[in-house]
Amino acid sequence: MEIKLVKKVLEYHDAIAGEIREELTRRKLYAINIMSSPGAGKTTLLERTVRELVGELTIGVVEGDITTTNDADRIAKQGAYAVQVNTEPFGGDCHLGANMVQSAMAELPMDKLDLLIMENVGNLVCPAEFDIGEDDKVVVFSLTEGDDKPLKYPLMFRESSVCLVNKIDLAPYLDSDLATVRRNVGSVNPEITTFEFSAKTGEGFAAWLDWLRGKVKAKQQG
Amino acid sequence: MEIKLVKKVLEYHDAIAGEIREELTRRKLYAINIMSSPGAGKTTLLERTVRELVGELTIGVVEGDITTTNDADRIAKQGAYAVQVNTEPFGGDCHLGANMVQSAMAELPMDKLDLLIMENVGNLVCPAEFDIGEDDKVVVFSLTEGDDKPLKYPLMFRESSVCLVNKIDLAPYLDSDLATVRRNVGSVNPEITTFEFSAKTGEGFAAWLDWLRGKVKAKQQG
Question: DSSP 3-state assignment of B199?
Answer without folding.
Answer: coil
